[in-house]
From TrEMBL:
A divalent metal cation binds at D8, H10, H42. It comes from Desulfoluna limicola. Binds 1 divalent metal cation per subunit. The record marks H34, T133 as: Transition state stabilizer. This is 2-C-methyl-D-erythritol 2,4-cyclodiphosphate synthase. Its EC number is 4.6.1.12. Residues 1-154 form the 2-C-methyl-D-erythritol 2,4-cyclodiphosphate synthase domain.
Length: 160
């Protein structure tokens, strides 16, 4: 078994869609970045890569590479699953936390879990998503951005 943790943060800006867990969430702002800037999926990618000893998301999908401009982070996550598999591991479960003052994500959590579980070849019950505010403290608390944390558990594949 291997455990990895992931963290990501993005600034909120006007003129971009807010994509979280592969779901377009209605909101007046979106996250700024090179890809679709899905902070939740980026934290999951980093947790998976870390657990497998494969570095971080920036090493595999640099923002200097035009092929990743505007790309869906679900595709980045799928590539991370392939990399983890090539290293001889499979995903057991994911536990992720979104830090944001707004919007409320409760209505979208089930769809996020389904998206993530499908890419990771898991049951949706093996993907946990939580959300919390920072009680108005710091950049996230002021509504300037969002952050996400994730812990991932991997196990050796039967073929390993």
């Amino acid at each position: 078994m291997r455990i990895g943790k992931g963290y990501d943060v993005h600034r909120l800006v006007e003129g971009r869609d807010l994509i979280l867990g592969g779901v377009k969430v209605p909101y007046e702002k979106g996250l700024l970045g090179h890809s679709d800037s899905d902070v939740l999926l980026h934290a999951i990618c980093d947790a998976l890569l870390g657990a497998a000893g494969l570095g971080d998301i920036g090493e595999h999908f640099p923002d200097s590479d035009p092929q990743y401009k505007g790309i869906s982070s679900l595709l980045l996550l799928a590539h991370c699953v392939v990399l983890v598999g090539l290293k001889g591991y499979e995903v057991v479960n994911i536990d992720a936390t979104l830090l944001a003052e707004a919007p409320k994500i409760s209505p979208y959590k089930a769809a996020m879990r389904e998206n993530i579980a499908e890419v990771l070849c898991l049951d949706s019950g093996d993907v946990n998503i939580k959300a919390t505010t920072t009680e108005g403290l710091g950049p996230v608390g002021r509504g300037e951005g969002m952050a996400a944390l994730c812990v991932a558990l991997l196990k050796e594949t039967d073929e390993a």
